[in-house]
């Protein structure tokens, strides 16, 4: 931030001091991307022109006051794409090769020969066709998996997904998938999209991976589906309530992999987030168009149209 301090008056604050720091500020950098402090301090935003959040998801700051204002909203799209894609490939391999079971047996000093699954040729449905979803699709295709997508608009010939189905018809396409990866942005339309009906549509051998937002899933329905054998397993990096409560049944289910909202957090990611803001700040000072401008009605940065057949 030293480069920015040379060009502007920078105020550092925690949630409690945000109203005072926000008064008279032109730019707000929300470094704590899980903070919910901005709506409560919004009354003090008397001259704010630009808000940047250090994450790809913008739901913590996308409240009515911001939506209705002229304040430009940008995010940190692009920072986490490849890391999250690697996480998704990793958990798919972990399921297919039974790594968790192998570790349990190792701790018991038990030599138990088993067969493992192939991932090549398996069907993956990636729900969310933004940059993270595309990075996932490219990496999984390189590993030999067959990938399709689900997004707002159905289309064919997509360079990364091939076929993209409409999320409005999601349950029609879930039965074909061996792995379902949730990476959609959290909007009014996507909240709770993975419910009892969605899980019932999946085949019992399918695995569910959530690297999007916890609120995409009705957790009680997921737990019931896993316990009832409607799903073979789940890898979950995000949850409706974070940290995941200690009494959640997800902790102890043998067919569930839990990670603490870290799928995109590679070594050095914090510095990269600051660098993204610093670069955009330079554009703002120079009067150039900002990168990663969020459509506040859609709730995400619209992707450029891709060529399709």
UniProtKB/TrEMBL annotation:
Keyword entries, A-Z: NAD, Oxidoreductase
N-terminal signal peptide: none
One Pfam family, short name: 2-Hacid_dh_C
Domain D-isomer specific 2-hydroxyacid dehydrogenase NAD-binding positions: 90-263
Keyword presence, NAD: yes
Oxidoreductase found in the keyword field: yes
CDD domains per the UniProt record, alphabetical: 2-Hacid_dh_1
PROSITE patterns assigned: D_2_HYDROXYACID_DH_3 (PS00671)
InterPro entries assigned to the protein according to its UniProt record, in alphabetical order: D-isomer_DH_CS (IPR029753), D-isomer_DH_NAD-bd (IPR006140), NAD(P)-bd_dom_sf (IPR036291)
Gene3D superfamilies: NAD(P)-binding Rossmann-like Domain (3.40.50.720)
Protein name, UniProt field: D-2-hydroxyacid dehydrogenase
Organism of derivation: Amycolatopsis samaneae
